[in-house]
Amino acid sequence: MCSKVLLVTLTVLLFVVGDGGGTVRAQEDGEDDSMTALPELPDQVSAGLVSHLCNFSKPLQDPTDLDDDQYCDCDVPNSGSSGLPELHINCRRHRFADGFWRGIEQLPQGTVRLDLSYNELTSVPRLSSDTLQHLSLAHNQIAAVPDKVFANLSTLQELDLSGNRIQLLGTDALAGLGRLKLINLSDNRIASIEVNAFSNALDLHQLILSNNSLGAFFNRTESDLYLRLGVTNRLAILELKRCNLTDINLASGVGLERAVLGHNPLQQLAQLPKQLAHLDISGVPIRNFPAKFLPHLLHLENLTMRDMPILYTLEQYALFGLPRLAMLDLQGSRNLSTIHPHVFGQNVVRNETETQLKRLILKGTNIRTLNSTLRFAFENLRLLDIRGAPLRCDCELRWLRDLPNLMTLGVCVRPNALREQRFGTIEPHQFQCRAEQFWIYTVFNVVLAILLILLVSVGVFLIVRAIRPKPHVQLRMVGPNSPYARVTIEPNRAEVL
Ligand SMILES: *[C@@H]1O[C@H](CO)[C@@H](O)[C@H](O)[C@H]1NC(C)=O
Ligand SMILES: *[C@@H]1O[C@H](CO)[C@@H](O)[C@H](O)[C@H]1NC(C)=O
Ligand SMILES: *[C@@H]1O[C@H](CO)[C@@H](O)[C@H](O)[C@H]1NC(C)=O
Ligand SMILES: *[C@@H]1O[C@H](CO)[C@@H](O)[C@H](O)[C@H]1NC(C)=O
Ligand SMILES: *[C@@H]1O[C@H](CO)[C@@H](O)[C@H](O)[C@H]1NC(C)=O
Ligand SMILES: *[C@@H]1O[C@H](CO)[C@@H](O)[C@H](O)[C@H]1NC(C)=O
Ligand SMILES: *[C@@H]1O[C@H](CO)[C@@H](O)[C@H](O)[C@H]1NC(C)=O
Ligand SMILES: *[C@@H]1O[C@H](CO)[C@@H](O)[C@H](O)[C@H]1NC(C)=O
Ligand SMILES: *[C@@H]1O[C@H](CO)[C@@H](O)[C@H](O)[C@H]1NC(C)=O
Ligand SMILES: *[C@@H]1O[C@H](CO)[C@@H](O)[C@H](O)[C@H]1NC(C)=O
User: What is the average pLDDT across 432-439?
Assistant: First the structure.
């Protein structure tokens, strides 16, 4: 695993008297004798003879030890980018509580990674290191982040505080973290963030605030992520899933490339930065996706709208103003049944603008057919995934089969003749509507109609014949004196008398 040279370097670096090895294990001293066994002796600690987390004098143990024992894994993986050995300390699931720490914990020299996730900490331990880059405190019960608590971790690049009980992020909570690139604050109870809370993190590239109750906070006009909270334009990735947002203003985020805003009761998203390349609004409960829900985003490439629970329709012009859109993912939006023929706008239909759409994912939707007007928007389409949708493979869908360079994944559900057949294996001429499909019935119908007409004519002829006077009867003029003349017979008067 580790080269001998590296181990020697490590042992020298850490002044360790031991037989060396890829993995050195440490025994966590009991809480009782810890006060004597580990007095607060920063010199000794920093010299590496004893560490609170790693016991380097302990001989190499089996690295396949169970995770729930009393030791942290103190591991020296193969490569250090600087050439110096790097120490990774893994204390995941060690039931560490607050009492474990005594004052400031000086981490062993060369520590680059420290994982304290899934422990029982209720406050942030005071750590000190000039090499630490990755720190995880995820899934503890930390309720607050005190001011400047990370001040002695100036080299930190990634901080994971997810899955705790933090309610408020103070102005100075992240003070001193000038090189921080990623902070994960998801799954907390953050309802409020103080002014300039992120302004120290000048390099912040990725901010994760998902699953916090920030809807009411970001509803206030003065709660702008950029202008008020001090997030810089270096921020490229922002995650705000499940935050109960009805709207958010990100217009000042000129560096933002990816925004994950899914599972929020969004009404619209009018204020997004222009160069956004990837937007995820999965799970947003809207019924019809209207025009102007999104602003014009000239650089948007990927739009993800998975599992929209009550989405039925993409209305006309809903995807207008997204000229670079290459991937549209509607997977699992089970109620979606209608895509308006002009969803990309009239310009596309008139062939005035071209779309870049290359991948369209309609897997698991309720789409039965697609209007042939959409072919103008599908000119660059390479992949259409409609698996699991109740496709009706009739003449109205033939245009799709005729598109060159398009791979369509899906199975026909109707008509019965094509049931269960893969879309791509069906010949274009097999896409037929009922009338053309059963031409023999058509002929039959025509014959029937002719017969019917014949029958009716015969009937009419017969009726006419029946009521017409006999052609052999000769008519003679009847004069007044003729015996055939009309005679008026008076009623018999004798009866009246
Ligand atoms: C470190 O491990 C060695 C060997 O198992 C043990 O003798 C020593 O007491 C341990 N040190 C501490 C501080 O626990
Ligand atoms: C940082 O280290 C200095 C000196 O070791 C110490 O005085 C200070 O309290 C430490 N700060 C924190 C937040 O641990
Ligand atoms: C942030 O934390 C959550 C919860 O622990 C985790 O699921 C997610 O993968 C983390 N994100 C990143 C980018 O580390
Ligand atoms: C949201 O966070 C809470 C803890 O605050 C957690 O119990 C829950 O599972 C999270 N929800 C999701 C969908 O991750
Ligand atoms: C935000 O404000 C709008 C109207 O101003 C309101 O309808 C909505 O419920 C608010 N959202 C939250 C999460 O408070
Ligand atoms: C979400 O915001 C609405 C107001 O728009 C509020 O009534 C509701 O309680 C909030 N839900 C949560 C889980 O915070
Ligand atoms: C868009 O999605 C594709 C895969 O579907 C991925 O390769 C590409 O990097 C994504 N682009 C952005 C800007 O996220
Ligand atoms: C479709 O919408 C109805 C309500 O309009 C809802 O009851 C149903 O659960 C939705 N279907 C899915 C798969 O979410
Ligand atoms: C649209 O215009 C382009 C050239 O501008 C042409 O190559 C393409 O065939 C046209 N498409 C249709 C459907 O007319
Ligand atoms: C497709 O859309 C066009 C334009 O809206 C409409 O005229 C036509 O009737 C539609 N075709 C079908 C088969 O619905």
Answer: 67
Q: Which atom of ligand 7 is nearest to the CA of 301?
A: 13
Atom 5 of ligand 8, residue of closest alpha carbon: 310
Can you name the residues that pair with 192 across neighbouring β-strands? Answer: 168
Domain count for the chain: 1
Q: Are the C-beta atoms of 462 and 468 separated by less than 8 Å?
A: no
Q: What is the DSSP string of 451-474?
A: HHHHHHHHHHHHHHHHHSPPTTPP
Q: Is residue 121 part of a domain?
A: no
For ligand 3, which residues put their CB under 6 angstroms from it? 138, 162-163, 184, 186-187, 208
0.70 exceeded by pTM: yes
Q: Tell whether the model's pLDDT for residue 68 goes beyond 80.
A: no
Does a structural domain hold residue 128? Answer: no
Q: Sorting pLDDT into bands at 50, 70 and 90, what band is 265?
A: very high
The angle subtended at Cα 225 by Cα 222 and Cα 229, nearest 5°, is 80
Report the pLDDT value the prediction gives residue 495, as an integer from 0 to 100. 52
Query: According to the model, what pLDDT value does residue 448 have?
Result: 87
Is 6 domain-assigned? Answer: no
Report the distance separating Cα 401 and Cα 405, nearest Å: 10
Which of 475, 457, 453, 476 has its CA nearest to residue 465? 457
CATH number of the domain residue 312 falls in: 3.80.10.10
Report, in angstroms and rounded to the nearest whole number, the Rg of the chain calculated over CA atoms.
41
- Residue 445: give the domain boundaries: 305-449
| Mean pLDDT estimate for the chain | 83
Ligand 8: residue of 335, 363, 366, 367 to mutate (most ligand atoms within 8 A of CB) is 335
Establish if 375 belongs to a structural domain.
yes
Biggest distance spanned by C-alpha atoms of the chain: 160
